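Review this fold:
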Amino acid sequence: MAALFFSIGFVTWLNGPLITFVQVAFNLNDVASFLVPVCFYLAYFVFPLPATLLSRRIGLRNGLIVSLAIMALGTALFGECINDRWYAGALGGLSVIGAGLSLLQITINPYVSLLGDHDRAAQRIAIMGMANKFAGIVAPALFAIIVMPHVGEVAASIHNTAPGPARDAILNHFTTAVHTPYRIMAVILVLLVVMVARSSIPEITIDQAASPVLTTHRRNPIRLASGVLAMFLYVGIEVLAGDAIGLFGHSRGLSLDVTKYLTALTLASMMAGYIVGMIVVPRFISQERYMILSCVTGILICLVALTTHGFTPVLCVALLGFTNAMILPALFPIVLAEAGTDGARATAFLVMAFSGGAVLPQLFVHLIPKLGTTDAFIGLVVLSYLFIGLWMTIILLKDQPTSLKAATAPTGNSAI
């Protein structure tokens, strides 16, 4: 399971350096290059409900196998289309990867909760989250070293070379560097398919994954809907901190050879957030109150970014990874608790909410011409933190028992 969570993190957190890559390789503006997270995360909006129906029919174990096979297909397709310098086809490949991830998110999380003692479920989920974020550190760094070792020089050469055979040769050499790594990734995903197919993990159905806690809780549609919106905004700001930090750093005068590593910096910060969270929660503070504290801290960090200069605002954006780390582990189980007995459908809605990773980054690049990079980024992030923090505060004030029960339920998802 940890290997699968690592694979999720690896393909997901490549989007940050990929934005820089396609911007150089296809000579794109910010809006066009940010179609990378749009196509990737929009699949989360389209496919979770069909994925839930499929997993009900074939079982979760077979769902793991099918999802990994789809991801392998999308990875191979992306590499081939980039090699042929076909941007639309490459975006299609990212959508296929996103479709596979949608099914994987639906199928893998119940296993994490059920493969072991119930009272240690939170510990297993934290381990899965750390595997995911460790991949988020490794993937952008490897991509920057292997595929974009001299991206600044390449961008300058393309800019200074007139359209023609010489410029095409530079672009072809640059895009070819993606081909082999993505072929290797596709082969690794196929090997994971074989590993899961031959493993001894038991077969379970999606209905077995429902928590006994959730089946006794009365459904609250309004709070469920607002919780899904909170998840939508959370994933949006997580993706902004991880994928848009390169553009943010470039707007602050950092070169492409520096900004290509910034996604890994955000994910390292997030890894630190997981470690601290595992130490202090729930020994010293409840998960829900720590989530509110994370939102408040995130807002304060944004205010520092807004009032400082140089590299400090970029560092502040990376530090948002730390504040984001423990938001989802509290948010997910409480939203599930509001679904009552309809946990399977609520899980699908929560995975659909991951499409916030498509919407908020695209809204960000559209706001840049009007507000500037810093104001657009800080405005979106602060408003999102305010909504999430207020939602959690209202839950605690109005229904303390519900929050306490939800905290003991399997959190079910740390894969994003």
About this structure: The chain has one domain: 2-408.
